[in-house]
Design goal:
The protein has one domain. Helix content is about 70%, strand content about 0%. It has four helices and no strands. Helix 1 runs antiparallel to helix 4.
């Protein structure tokens, strides 16, 4: 397992911890305060220390590029869906004209979390597809 895969597993593990923490806090504190569990995703910031001395070959760089592109597109979709979902819920469904300003910050944070989590899953999937040895 190379450093990129270790970083990806860290991303998946921290996202799992965030979701479990959210579900544990939800009945006690409500949905707004329970989102504090997603601060655990900051542990992913230590991923840069994993495998700092390893060199990546062209296959590793290609997988990293493809995973980053997939994460960026998923993040963009999460941002658009978050904005349009907020508009639909508040304006079209409830009939109000004002949005709670903290929702916009939460949409941005969740867009970033979606990016890193999708990138981690994409790295693991793309490395899993290339496990058979080359017969060249």
């Amino acid at each position: 397992m190379n450093a990129e895969q270790k970083r990806a597993w860290l991303g998946v593990a921290t996202m799992t911890a965030c979701v479990v923490g959210y579900l544990v806090l939800l009945p006690f504190f409500g949905p707004v305060v329970a989102t504090a569990a997603f601060a655990l995703y900051g542990i992913n910031g230590f991923a840069g220390f994993i495998g700092r001395g390893e060199r990546a070959d062209e296959r590793d760089r290609s997988i990293g590029r493809r995973a980053t592109l997939g994460g960026a597109m998923a993040s963009y979709m999460a941002f658009i869906l978050g904005c349009m979902g907020t508009w639909f819920t508040v304006f079209a469904w409830q009939g109000r004209e004002l949005v709670w300003v903290h929702v916009l910050g939460m949409i941005t944070v969740f867009g970033g979390i979606v990016f890193f989590f999708t990138r981690s899953v994409a790295v693991l999937v793309l490395y899993g597809r290339h496990t058979e040895p080359d017969n060249a």
